[in-house]
Amino acid sequence: MATIGVIGAGSWGTALAKLLAECEHDVTLWAHNPDVGRTINETHENATYLPGFELPSSVRATSELSDAVAGKDLLLSVSPSHCVREVMSAASAHVEGTPHIVSASKGVEHDTHLTMAGVLEQAMGKRHAARISALSGPSFAREVAARMPTAVTVAASTQDVSEDVQKIFNHTGYFRVYSSEDLVGVEIGGAVKNIIALAAGVADGLGFGSNTRAALITRGLAETSRLAVCLGANPMTLSGLAGMGDLVLTCTGDLSRNRTVGLRLGRGESLQNILDDMQMVAEGVKNTESVRALAAAEGVEMPITEQMYAMLYENKPPREVVTYMMTRGLKPELDRSAAEKP
C-alpha cells in the first residue's frame, strides 16, 4: 500500500483518488475550496464535480496542502494547467523525501512554453526531476469512476520510474496503465488534442457530418505529431493511447468539455457566455494560445490551431474558419521530413 496525495479535487482528480483508493492505497485529496473538501468527508461524494459516485472511506479530503503532501509516496498533480505552477510551488515546501510526482494535467504553460512536467520540475526543484512522470490517454472521469475499462499511458524520462508508477495504478481490473519513456510525446499529445476537439465541436455545431470530423481528427493528429517530433518525441507515440486514442475520445465523446465548447461556438454562442456557464475548465481554450505560441517559436505549421486561435481570440466567424481550412494551398498529405526525424 502506498500513501498518495492527489492535488486537485475536480472531476478527474476525484476519479483518480477513487481509483487509487480501490487499489487499496491511502489517499488524501486536496481541494482548493474548503467547502468541497468538507462535503467529501461528510458524505463520501464530490457532489460539486463528480456527483453520483460514492468514494471509499480511505479517501480523505483536506484543504491544507501540507496535509496532502507531507510524507507521501506519490503526489498526483491534477490542477488545471494554468494553476499547476502556483499550486505545486506552494506544495513543494511540504514535500518529504523523494516521492513520485505524477502530472495528470494536460497543457502547455503560456509564458514558458513548458509542458506540465517541465513546470513541475521548476516548481518542485531539480532534485525531484528524475521522478516526474505524466499520466495521459483516453479517459473520461465519469467513466473511470463508473469502473468502465480504460487504458492510459504513464511516461517518464526512464523506464524504471514509469514502471514504478504503472504498478501503483494497475490493481483494479478496469484501469490498465502502459509505460513509456517518451515524456514529450505523451504530454504534447495530451495538450494539443483539446484544441482539435474544439475544432471538431465547431464543425458539429455548424451541422457538418462524419466526413468533416474524420478529416479534423486525422489532420489534427498530423499537426500534433509535427510539433511533438520537433520537440524530440517518438512519432509512434502519437499513434498510441496518448495520441490518437485521446484525440478520438475527446473529439467524439459527449462527455468532452472541449468538444462541448466548440459545439456551442458553432451554434452561435459567445465564448464568454459559454465559459461563464461552465463549472469545470475546458483546457483547450487557454492551450490554443499557448500551443500556438510554442509552435511559432519552433517554426512548426499548425493550421487548425491557428484557426482556433483566430476564432477564440480574434473573433473570426466559425464558418469562415472551416472555409479557410478547406481552401488552403494544395500540398502532399505526408510530411516526409517530419517522419524521418528521430
What tags apply to this protein structure?
alpha/beta; Rossmann fold; N-(1-d-carboxylethyl)-l-norvaline Dehydrogenase, domain 2; 16 helices; 8 strands; 12% strand; disordered C terminus
Structural write-up:
- This protein is an alpha/beta fold.
- The chain folds into 2 domains: 3-181, 3-Layer(aba) Sandwich (Rossmann fold); 188-339, N-(1-d-carboxylethyl)-l-norvaline Dehydrogenase, domain 2, CATH 1.10.1040.
- The protein is built from 16 helices and 8 strands.
- It has helices at 11-22, 34-43, 65-69, 84-92, 116-124, 141-145, 159-169, 183-205, 210-230, 241-252, 257-266, 271-277, 283-298, 303-314, 318-326, 336-339; strands at 3-7, 26-30, 59-62, 74-77, 100-103, 132-136, 150-156, 175-180.
- Strands 3-2-1-4-5-6-7-8 form an 8-stranded mixed sheet, with helices on both faces.
- Strand 5, helix 5 (116-124) and strand 6 (132-136) form a beta-alpha-beta unit.
- Helix 14 packs antiparallel against helix 15.
- It starts with a strand and ends with a helix.
What are the SSEs and their pairings?
Elements: E1 3-7, H1 11-22, E2 26-30, H2 34-43, E3 59-62, H3 65-69, E4 74-77, H4 84-92, E5 100-103, H5 116-124, E6 132-136, H6 141-145, E7 150-156, H7 159-169, E8 175-180, H8 183-205, H9 210-230, H10 241-252, H11 257-266, H12 271-277, H13 283-298, H14 303-314, H15 318-326, H16 336-339
Parallel strand pairs: 1-2, 1-4, 2-3, 4-5, 5-6, 7-8
Antiparallel strand pairs: 6-7
Helix pairs in contact: 4-5, 8-9, 8-10, 8-11, 8-13, 9-10, 13-14, 14-15
